[in-house]
Amino acid sequence: MILIIATLMAVALPLYLNAVQDASKKTCRANMRDVCSAAQAWKVKNRAADFTGVTLSTLTPDMGSIPSCPDGGTYTLALSGTELDDTGATQTIPTGGLGISCSYAGHNGYIPGVTSR
């Protein structure tokens, strides 16, 4: 009986831990998409030509609060340069574009119109 339970635990525990880790990463990615959507709404609301002037603090009034990474990472907006996409590949932020990254290892970043997920 104990051998059966031990075997089930050996199979089930890694699957459970992977599912929890995957859920955290997907939640983080959804948070990054939400922040980018709020930044795009800010751009329209302020009739801005680009994202210059947008920061996480300028988005707080519209979002209520900036979502946080479930694993404790911090979000950083980037208006130019490069950012890691969802696969970890380096992507160039388009001119006038926006990117966001999470400091938690493996969560990478999101660039609207470039990142697929």
What does this structure look like?
The protein has 117 residues and is α+β, with helices and mostly antiparallel strands. It has one domain (2-110). Helix content is 44%, strand content 14%. It contains 2 helices and 5 strands. The protein has helices at residues 2-45, 56-63, and strands spanning 75-78, 82-84, 90-92, 99-102, 109-110. The strands form 2 sheets. Strands 1-4-5 form a 3-stranded antiparallel beta sheet, covered by helices on one side. Strand 4 and strand 5 form a beta hairpin. The longest helix has 44 residues, at 2-45. It starts with a helix and ends in a 7-residue tail after the last strand. Keywords: Signal. InterPro entries: Pilin-like.
Q: Output mean pLDDT.
A: 88
Query: What is the count of DSSP helices, taking H or I runs of 4+ residues?
Result: 2
Specify the helix fraction band. 40-55%
Anisotropy-based shape: elongated
Distance between the termini: 44 Å
Element pattern in H and E: HHEEEEE
Poorly predicted runs are: none
Computed CA radius of gyration, to the nearest angstrom: 18 Å
Structural class: alpha+beta
Binned strand content: 5-15%
Which strand order does the major sheet show?
1-4-5
Biggest β-sheet, characterized?
3 strands, antiparallel
The total tally of domains equals 1
